[in-house]
Amino acid sequence: MHKDKLRWGILGCAGIAIRSAIPGIQQSKTGIVTAIASRSLEKAQKAAEACGIPTVYGSYEELLADKNIDAVYIPLPNHLHKEWTIRAAEAGKHVLCEKPCALNAEEAESMVTACAKAGVQFSEAFMYRHHPRYDRIKAIIKSGEIGEIRGIHGAFTFNNAKDAKNVRYQRSMGGGSLYDVGCYPISAARYLLDEEPQAATVHAFFSPEHDDVDMMASGLIEFSGGVALSFDCGMWADFRNPLEVLGTIGRIEVPSAYVTSGNRGGFVVITPEGRREEEVPDLDQYALQADDLAYAAWGQKPMRFAAEDAHLNMKVLDACLQSARERNRIII
Question: Is 99 among the residues known to form the active site?
Fold first, then answer.
């Protein structure tokens, strides 16, 4: 492994890889994108040309056999995450896997275990939490400026329902709004509260037009002390992604909770002293995410978010989906 640059391979040509993750790695302090693979060599070649990637493979196996690759990013459909994470770990590659990392907590646990056994780093690609604005939000909460936390509300919705062939609408592939976007407010609440939830109650709209996946879901995630996350997520609704942390004497409002491009990354703190806009640096959170994994791979810093976090987040998602299907409150 080169200690000046972590050499990345990309398993798949998904839009998130082309638009965000690959440019992020290329702009990071630590990483270079060495190769990209697809089951279609032509598709991989087009992606490589568009992104300036020197090496192309027509299969994932070929990329994992490349000794010039230190780490892989996996943006494949959700049902393929477990297989290719474990195969990458067995090939000695560090793994950054798109969210949700698996189809259920059992799969996630096996992935975490395989990476630990192979001595490689594993990270679930929740890019937002690598940006320093969340450190700042957490610091404000801990300072007591908004008082005791009484609740968190988050939302993440968008409308892509016309694209019926999209993998998001294939139940066997791990489709559905909880997996695709509901996982964000759940992850954020767990991070900001520094604890795991106790129960979940979720109501969802399952669409027969979209292989019966949850196209919209609204839920309540219970934490200790009467605190809860209320959230909604959807793939057949107008776009929005706010987060609000409500305290006894104030609140924090994050209008765009998971993107930081331009001036959209700031947030507002409201207290008895007034309203304060907190500006944050316009940093590429995908680059920061890549750097965090690289420093851990080199043994310079521990992972900011332990691999086990992916397993714990999947436990909550499991409970949410079970609650929505059964129309019951589920103990986590």
Answer: yes
